[in-house]
TrEMBL record:
One of its GO terms (molecular function) is monocarboxylic acid transmembrane transporter activity. Signal peptide: none annotated. It is a multi-pass membrane protein. This is Major facilitator superfamily (MFS) profile domain-containing protein. Keywords: Membrane, Transmembrane, Transmembrane helix. It comes from Mesorhabditis belari. Gene3D superfamilies: MFS general substrate transporter like domains.
Length: 593
């Protein structure tokens, strides 16, 4: 920046103060509602397929292109949406996304052709939903640490709730007001997401010198004693960030501020103001008021992090499970928590460079990770899963009406059944994903192995079920299929990021997640049109379901080879080094079948 003054220096790590509750539950509510609305629109869009085909006299392939672009861009734009979120913050990104999506939805009301809707829904709303989806996930993982699995589990359940809710609603709206009314009503509902995004309040940060962090290891071995002050007991400085966060939320005149300030000053004099013996430098990182010996200045609204958060520099930002179960976090929590890890002076020019959107995209899409065979296998599996995931749900209502002769109301109930069981599945898989299982012979004692087996078996079962859809030839049978499909496919959503960490470690999660979104987007773009073409070619939807089922089943079966690949790699390392290599507890390197 121009001026004669020296550029500000920032040394060490910026560590977010994680509330693990409080306003965080409002953030969870806002993110939950975004999932209800965005995913509810996507998963219930199949209700519109038949009426749009009749209105514009098009075939299944043309209609399927809408959902392909909508879901494909929502996922495929993930790296771009992540970069925008990283630069402008979760609140601004989600509000911009909801505005874009609502414009596309409103424009669809005036559609005169299927191509028009393909653009307004598939492209415009797809980009908008992508900008809404990414910050809705990121902000929850930033606000929660100990309760992250619970918080993210509640959030992603919004997809199932939205499917169950909007399926019958859309059917009723079409029946009494016409298909255009669906887009008109959803315009207002999607605009409501701006209020949901407004709950994504930026976090508070503190700055800790890395030099002082080196002293932590020596002090940690000696053990930390609890310090007493005239204000009561102050535990070893791990409580200090929480004190600072509490005080930052108070008004300047609140008497409790002096209490917190006095406590922190007392800690400074004793030299024990760190959770592990280090001296924390209580410099606010863009979001806190200044701290001095006289007290803590109240936080001003303009001082919060709103222009650039840099959240994607946090290694666990895409991790949806319990971070306390990850060995890398247990070994060095602050390294995982920190936004930056720069032990040098950082000028404003360098800080601006860190905010470069293209650099973030490049970091997320670093193709060198594809040289690791387990990840490449997992990425291909995700691509095949995405090919088979959306089409069954998309064609389910029209298959029920045209293929099985059901009423539109009964066909819509199948979507509702999917939504209910999908919600239950996300809760169940999220609950058992981090736990040991009571299996015979001790087979369930390794949570990482459990997750991989659950994920693989669920996808395989879902694929076989979908390929055998021709057995479900009535209303009850169709609802049974929808329910089992919804439950089993939910593992794909809940366990993906957790298994990525098992495979690669936390350090590579952001890069791996970015590449995975790209693979998922590609699979989603090609899956529905191919399924639609098969339906047009054969005059039946069963071949489309079989095609999707094969992709889902293969995507699950192929991952059973990962333990063998890891064992072979470990054996090669032993031969090369002549000794047994150290086990990397952050990865699936020694899974036994």
């Amino acid at each position: 920046m121009g001026g004669t003054g020296a550029a500000p220096k920032i040394t060490g790590n910026r560590i977010p103060i994680v509330p693990d509750g409080g306003w965080g539950w409002m953030v969870v509510l806002g993110s939950f509602l975004i999932h209800v609305i965005a995913d509810g629109f996507v998963y219930s869009f199949g209700i519109l397929v038949d009426v749009l085909q009749k209105e514009f006299k098009t075939d299944n392939a043309a209609a399927a292109l809408i959902i392909a672009l909508l879901t494909g861009l929502t996922l495929g734009s993930g790296p771009i949406a992540s970069a925008i979120t990283n630069k402008f913050g979760c609140r601004i990104a989600s509000i911009i996304g909801s505005c874009i999506a609502s414009v596309g939805c409103l424009a669809s009301y005036f559609a005169t052709s299927m191509g028009f809707i393909t653009f307004t829904v598939g492209i415009v709303m797809g980009i908008g939903f992508g900008l809404m989806y990414c910050p809705a996930i990121v902000i929850v993982t930033m606000y929660f640490e100990k309760r992250r699995a619970l918080a993210t589990g509640i959030t992603v359940c919004g997809a199932g709730v939205g499917s169950a809710l909007f399926g019958p609603i859309n059917e009723r709206v079409i029946k009494y007001f016409g298909w255009r009314a669906v887009f008109l009503s959803f315009t207002g509902v999607i605009l409501f997401c701006t209020l949901c995004g407004a709950t994504f309040r930026p976090l508070q940060f503190i700055s800790a010198d890395e030099k002082d962090e080196e002293d932590e290891e020596g002090e940690e071995k000696k053990g930390d004693e609890t310090e007493h002050t005239k204000h009561g007991k102050v535990s070893r400085a791990g409580n200090l960030p929480w004190i600072m966060e509490d005080a930052a939320l108070l008004t300047p005149n609140d008497p409790r501020i002096r209490t917190h300030s006095s406590s922190s000053s007392q800690i400074d004099r004793t030299g024990t103001n760190s959770a592990k013996g280090s001296k924390l430098s209580l410099r606010a990182a863009n979001s806190m008021g200044q701290v001095n010996g006289d007290g803590l200045r109240g936080r001003s609204r303009s001082g919060t992090v709103t222009s650039s958060t840099g959240y994607l520099q946090k290694k666990d930002v895409f991790y949806m499970g319990s971070i306390h179960n990850v060995s890398e976090f247990k070994e060095n929590p602050d390294k995982v928590r920190s936004i930056t890890s720069i032990h040098q002076a950082v000028t404003e020019e360098m800080a601006a460079r860190d905010e470069n959107i293209l650099e973030v995209i490049s970091r997320m899409l670093n193709l060198s990770l594809l040289t690791e065979v387990p990840f490449l296998l997992f990425a291909i599996s995700n691509l095949m899963t995405s090919v088979g995931f959306n089409s069954p749900l998309y064609f389910l209502p029209i298959h029920g009406e045209k293929g099985l002769g059901l009423t539109s109301t009964d066909a819509a109930l199948a979507i509702t059944t999917f939504g209910i069981t999908n919600t239950a599945g996300r809760l169940v898989f999220g609950l058992i994903g981090d736990r040991e299982l009571p299996l015979p012979y001790g087979w369930g004692k390794d949570p990482a192995r459990n997750r991989l087996w659950i994920y693989n078996l669920s996808l395989t079962f879902c694929g076989i079920l979908t390929a055998c859809s021709y057995f479900f030839n009535g209303f009850i049978q169709l609802c049974v299929y929808a329910g089992l499909f919804g439950f089993s496919i939910s593992s794909y959503v809940c366990l993906t990021s957790v298994i990525l960490v098992d495979l690669l470690g936390l350090e590579k999660l952001t890069n791996a997640f970015g590449l995975l979104l790209l693979f998922q987007g590609i699979g989603t773009v090609f899956g529905p049109p191919i399924s639609g073409y098969l339906a047009d070619l054969t005059g039946s939807y069963h071949p489309a379901f079989v095609f999707c089922g094969i992709n889902l089943a293969v995507s699950g079966l192929m991952l059973f080879t990962i333990p063998f690949l890891n064992k072979r790699k470990e054996n090669q390392q032993q031969k090369e080094q002549g000794v047994k290599p150290l086990v990397d507890h952050g990865k699936l390197t020694n899974l036994d079948l």
